Amino acid sequence: MRITKKDFLPSALLCCSFLFLSGCATVIEKIQHTTGNQVEKVEQLAVDDIQKQETEETPRQEDTSDLPKSPAPHTELNDILNDEGKGEYAGEKFNRGKVVQALNQMPKGLSDDKAYAYLLGLVGENYRSDVERFKNLEEADYEEMVDVWVAARHKYPKPTPASASKDKPSSALTPEQPKKMNMSVMLDASGSMKSQLSNHSKSKMDSAKQSIEQLAAALPPKRSLLQVKVYGHEGTSAQKDKERSCRSQAKIYAGDKWDREKLRKALSQIHPAGYNPLALAMGSSSKDMQKGAPATVENHILIISDGFENCGGDPVQTAKQLHREYMANIHVIGLDVEPETERQLREVSTVTGGAYQTVTDEKELKQAVKERVQMVNRLNDPWQIRALQTAIHAHHQDEKELTKHNQKMKKKVETEHQRLNEANLYIKKEGKIDKRTWTEIDTWIDQRWQQLETFTEDRYGEVDSLLDSEFQEETHRLMNEWEKDGGKKEEFQNKAVQLLKEDLLKKKAEEADGLTDLSNQQSE
Q1: Of the candidates 188, 262, 173, 260, which has an alpha carbon nearest to the alpha carbon of residue 219?
Q2: In the prediction, which pLDDT does 62 show?
Q3: For the chain, which terminal residue's Cβ has fewer other Cβ atoms within 10 angstroms, N or C?
Q4: What is the pTM of this model?
């Protein structure tokens, strides 16, 4: 259903270079290349340009190296999705007053495509990261995750079927002696941690510190050891400090008994600073690994980060080495990360059979930490059940992220459509374009909207189906592995049903929380 066009709206400024333009500088090129945010100069620039074209055969080329790109007036879906440009007032940068000002300065009589480009330069969105997010979720690799557990199966005690003992219930498929957990928390202290989690006044760093205190307080003291390390906490993000920052990593806390004040004091001295030497910090954690893994103790590393390794290290290879030498499972909590960062951090956890999770607010962060604590109670479960739990967690988080991304992109597409429509109607009323041009642009706007909506729905369905299919395949694979080790098929199925029921209850609780949050936002 088409959105009713209102009196006016849009966002963004004309300071941008359009990919579709070429040849001698035209009025619109001059505007795009030289005005920046100085929208009040547009009309004068137009006059200057006409005068120069009368006297100059080759107009002076402007330096556009520092100017942002605007979306080009593409009509084909692939071109729209791959366009590198973004409107000056697109997304959260939307400012109605500045958009109005820019539209008032728009020269009259521009051709259809250039008038459309002008609007896109104000409020047109960039969809490249949205495409990448779908791709990341599509590439979630449950098979690789399970491969890690299968490859290490000989290092775990072989489960004894419950039926082998009349006195022991099904839960007795575990060794008698409870294992210990050696947990090494690694806190990203690079400069990007100064930013905030979505809709929160706290910095990511402050939220992360709070979550570490939560973790330390909840770990059972007799069954767990805890170390806290930081990295990237020295120097600055300036190039001159890169070498120093890329060498910075330190253990700030260690112990088998929680000391609230000691931990809090240590964390209080850490502030977001420089670069992100993730691989270095991971490699140095080898000194904290315990012997006897995984028979009597398990080594787990929890990384809390919002950034990409940018010191030349290879965190994925380092993760593989830590798992190979110390049977370390590496878990990662990504703090509202970009697609490129998510891809790297997800791989770090996948290659060790660990869990990855992206969080966007403090509530999700607290839940993610709570789930890491709950691992202590599952250390003695058979490896097939542990692997199944990891796969269920991964599938749950991926489905949740997919749904959120689908809703977010649909809202983005809808908002852009509304703003473009209102901008187009405004310039028609102001006499900047005639009715024929308005109609042509209106058609392009609607085509853009419809194509993007269809793409979003199609990709959501494709990725959702793929995730479900791969998850089911790995569940069957683990059941076969269970039977190979002498377990009864029914026992595995019963445990799987129990875990899936727990996961379903968790989903319903999250949906209820989501509806409550939405209701609160609407009431505000």
Answers
A1: 260
A2: 44
A3: N
A4: 0.81
